[in-house]
Amino acid sequence: MKKILHPAATRGTADYGWLKANYSFSFANFYDPNRLGFGKLRVLNDDFIAPAMGFSKHPHANMEIVTIPQTGSLKHKDSMGFSEVIRSGEIQIMSAGSGVEHSEVNASTTEAISLFQIWILPETENVPPRYAQEKIAPLLIENKLTTIVWPKDKATNTELYVHQQAYFNLGDFTEDTITTYTLHQQNHGAYIFVISGTVFVDSEKLSDRDAIGIWDTDSIALDIKKHSRVLLIEVPMN
């Protein structure tokens, strides 16, 4: 087993006034040659956006973009014709594929919004752009890691997917829980991000916003303490 520890305090940070950002990997003005991503996981940004502010229209191509609001609501508008509001408790997926433009703005004029924006490198380039959105709560099983996003070729008609052999798993834990996560393929790794609470992974203690990447193993043992919320993203490492 190999691992890399990313304590919350070691993330890149930026304060643009309207946007306060924390970067798990090199992004924008934060560059660390040792933190260019984790396998096919390229971006995990922990953003706080001021009321009525946000990202004006901008382009993307050949990237799987997953947005998970933690508090508040986000207005999304894109060149595919989608104009949606994504709320806390929901998840949004946009496959940029052959090219798309979109904007993302805090839907509230009085309250800040916090969200995770996650980018995955696709296994197939130049696919037609697409948009999907879903409520998370009905998908979750209490005190278990639940897969909420699947690879396209593994997903059913009702399951959210990305164009990559990647699995997004989310868990809300109200009780102390010891569990084992089994990787789907030998060349995969898992990036475990503690949204809140305390988790022990391979003798490492992780707290709020700490993360650890694990690879070169078939399975990962997790000791998750009650009142914890955990995001685990499994991706190919090559």
From TrEMBL:
Coiled coil: none annotated. Gene3D superfamilies: Jelly Rolls (2.60.120.10). Transmembrane segments: none annotated. Residues 155-235 form the Quercetin 2,3-dioxygenase C-terminal cupin domain. Residues 13-120 form the Pirin N-terminal domain. It holds the Pfam family Pirin. Belongs to the pirin family. PANTHER family: QUERCETIN 2,3-DIOXYGENASE. This is Pirin family protein. It comes from Jejudonia soesokkakensis.
